[in-house]
Specification:
CATH topology: Rossmann fold
Oligomer: single chain
Radius of gyration: 13 Å
Number of helices: 4
Strand content: 5-15%
Number of domains: 1
Mean pLDDT: 86
Order of helices and strands: HEHEHEH
Helix content: 25-40%
CATH superfamily: Response regulator
């Protein structure tokens, strides 16, 4: 869906694979899209480690945690972009564009 909207996408099946991809690239990586809850590294842990490799990278977290609103509140309170699940494809594209357009300094780690 992101590629069909004109974005270049690097796919990773895990947080560890995302870190390997990041370590192998010298060019900027504009956005890291990660679920908050993932096997192995959590999304916030991945982002913190990934930012050491690519400090220019913006973060967009997604999660389907309706019974844990404190998670999305914590992410939002730290200035990180968040998209609750479920979402429609258009909502994801809008949010990605919004985050990329903002180009703010990378917020403090969670």
């Amino acid at each position: 869906m992101l590629e069909r909207s004109g974005f270049g996408v690097l796919r990773a099946a895990s947080g560890d694979e995302a870190l390997q991809i990041g370590a192998g690239r010298n060019d900027p990586i504009d956005l890291l899209l990660a679920d908050v809850v993932m096997p192995g590294l959590s999304g916030p842990s991945l982002a913190e480690r990934f930012t050491r490799l690519h400090p220019e990278t913006q973060w967009l977290f997604m999660a389907g945690l309706p019974d844990q609103p404190e998670v999305s509140e914590r992410i939002a309170s730290r200035g990180h972009a968040f998209l609750p699940k479920p979402f429609l494809p258009d909502a994801l594209i809008r949010k990605v564009r919004e985050v990329l357009a903002a180009r703010q300094d990378v917020p403090a780690p969670l």
